[in-house]
Write a structure and sequence with these properties.
Layout: H1 3-7, H2 18-21, H3 24-47, H4 129-135, E1 158-161, E2 166-169, E3 176-177, E4 185-188, E5 200-205, H5 214-225, E6 234-243, E7 246-255, E8 258-267, E9 275-282, H6 290-298, E10 300-301
Antiparallel strand pairs: 1-2, 2-10, 3-4, 4-5, 5-9, 6-7, 7-8, 8-9
Length: 303
């Protein structure tokens, strides 16, 4: 037995190095923490740009142009530049090229300085009725020197539309009066077998927003009448001229392989809203196309 054992004093443990004092699982845990920190640092290097100029931009779009309440003309939008992803914003809406006044009627928007929409343009919120008209691909610009139609005072029986404040011709057979709703007076031709539409002559207070110029109100009314023609209908202008206290437009409406001859007369009948007279006769009843001229010749103010 050793001297320590004989004396009863416990022996001191042998000295170890500091690395040897660590357990292996603690070593592995520390290495794992260091590895995770290295991954996070590497991720920051790839995600964050080295300078603000390197931030990838998305598609550039201009804010919708809202009409100013003060009537001031908004500044023109700049053409958007391509993004770094190769995507461009929607193209800017630009005014059509200038046309001589002998070809097209000047737009009322020209005096305001606002761009005139081109046919097929998608309009921003807040657009006006006339802007919607110019953007409608179904309605071409009205020529300034459109053909005029000789108008002769119509004789014979008449129909009085007191709600609209007008008197209109009562057309001879085969025309006949029909239930007016939703209009205030209506005359129709007999339905042709297999035909999609038939001749119709109606009056009512102007169903769209009245404009300062009667001609512009008539343009909007003609566009509105497309709701009463087959889908896909489009207008071709035939005549345009002033009438007493209003304006008249005659036009052809084409839909597929067929067409109709139509006309609108908008005039002030002394009521809260101007009166509208609208006539349309399809090519399946072309023998009655002369009635279109009779209608526009015979519409007058009541009283």
């Amino acid at each position: 037995m050793t001297t320590a054992a004989r004396s009863g004093t416990p022996a001191s443990p042998p000295k170890r190095s500091r690395i040897g004092d660590l357990r292996m699982r603690d070593v592995y845990r520390g290495l794992a923490v260091l590895a995770a920190a290295a991954v996070v640092a590497a991720g920051l290097v790839f995600v964050l740009p080295s300078s603000p100029d390197e931030v990838a931009a998305g598609p550039i779009t201009a804010p919708p142009a809202q009409p100013s309440s003060s009537g001031a003309t908004p500044p023109p939008q700049q053409t958007p530049t391509p993004s770094v992803l190769g995507t461009t914003a929607a193209p800017e809406v630009t005014a059509p090229s200038a046309v001589a006044s002998t070809t097209l009627t000047p737009s009322p928007l020209a005096a305001t300085g606002r761009p005139i929409p081109t046919p097929g343009t998608t309009l921003a919120p807040g657009y006006t009725a006339m802007e919607a008209l110019y953007a409608d691909a179904r309605v071409p610009r009205l020529p300034a020197k459109a053909r005029r139609v000789p108008l002769k005072a119509a004789a014979g029986r008449t129909v009085k539309d007191r709600r609209s404040g007008v008197v209109v011709p009562r057309l001879a057979k085969p025309w006949k009066t029909y239930g007016p709703a939703p209009f205030t007076s209506r005359q129709v031709l007999p339905q042709v077998r297999g035909a999609r539409v038939r001749g119709m002559f109606v009056t009512c207070p102007l169903p769209i927003e009245e404009q300062k110029a009667p001609r512009d109100s008539a343009l909007l009314a003609a566009r509105w009448t497309l709701n009463h023609h087959p889908k896909g209908a489009a207008i071709t202008w035939l005549a345009s001229q002033p009438v007493r206290k209003g304006w008249m437009l005659m036009y052809r409406v084409t839909y597929g392989k067929h067409s109709s001859r139509a006309a609108v007369v908008v005039l002030d009948g002394g009521m809260p809203k101007p009166a509208l007279a609208f006539v349309s006769v399809p090519d399946t009843q072309r023998k009655r196309w002369a009635d279109v001229t009779r209608v526009i010749s015979g519409v007058r103010v009541l009283g």
